[in-house]
Specification:
Layout: H1 3-27, H2 32-64, E1 73-76, E2 80-81, H3 88-103, E3 108-109, H4 112-121, H5 132-142, E4 146-154, E5 158-167, E6 173-182, H6 185-190, E7 207-215, E8 225-234, E9 237-242, E10 251-256, E11 262-270, E12 286-296, E13 299-304, E14 311-316
Parallel strand pairs: 1-3, 1-4, 2-4
Antiparallel strand pairs: 4-5, 5-6, 7-8, 7-14, 8-9, 9-10, 10-11, 11-12, 12-13, 13-14
Length: 317
Amino acid sequence: MKTIPYILAGLLCLAAAAPCAAERLQNQPPPPEQQRQTREPQTREPQAKELDKQIDNLASQIISGLNVRRTHKIAVVEFTSLEGKTSDLGKYLAEELTTRLFRTGRFQIVERQLLQKMMDEQKLSASGLVDAGTASKFGRVLGVDALTTGTLADLRTSVRINARLISVETGSVSAAASVSIPMTGEVRTLLNKADAPAPADRNRFDGTWNVTLVCPRHTDGALGYGYQFTGDVKDGVFHGEYTPPHGSVPFTFDGEINPDGTSLITVKGYSGDPRFAAFQVKRKTPVTFHLDTRFEGNRGTGKRIEVRECTASFVKR
């Protein structure tokens, strides 16, 4: 019978030790498998945040370029590749932009299902609405003030997104926006590129190119003009400069050429003689526009996508 007190004492010690043991187990790090599961969402989260951040940036640029007093009802068309192909990323961008623009409370947004129905009835595709003239005509049928659309340029390690707000009244681009997003796993999946083959080497375009830019007479009476200059492609990146007569600041032409030969070249400079400037832009006004360009072999062609119809030809030396 004397052993009973010792047994009871031992049970009490075990009972007291249990909470301590549980506390020690809680303070121990989780096994490696659980650690990986804990870290995995943290590696994806910054990528998702970056995509959302750039879509917010895109929406802000579009809103800042709008004349709120005149633009009230708009439609957002899904974005396409430079070849006119659709992807889940293009649809996703349209959906997200629609939501962000609506939340401002400044605009009426056409519901995307209605938009698609009208496009089907008019036998139009999203790629066709990239053209300002077609978009303007369709916008009148839809009863909106402006259409927002754009293109996606796959730059291998990133995606360049260019958006345009096309005024239905004038048929011209009234606002433009552009951002770049890294080629994360999420973006690659949305581009439907999970099993895509490796693209061709874009360095094949490296070298010196003769460039001719021609802008015919504009509908508002601005005179036509044309000029020639040389540009260089190095590591798949085009750069050229043209200094107008009696001008001190050159126009710069810059753009990354995709492996398939497509490129969106950004042109920056300052307006010169108002007689040659559309809408009578004053002299020395900052000017920015883009050339939707395709290089094939030793030649290339480009088309201006804002304000007036200019064409560019490229010939490799």
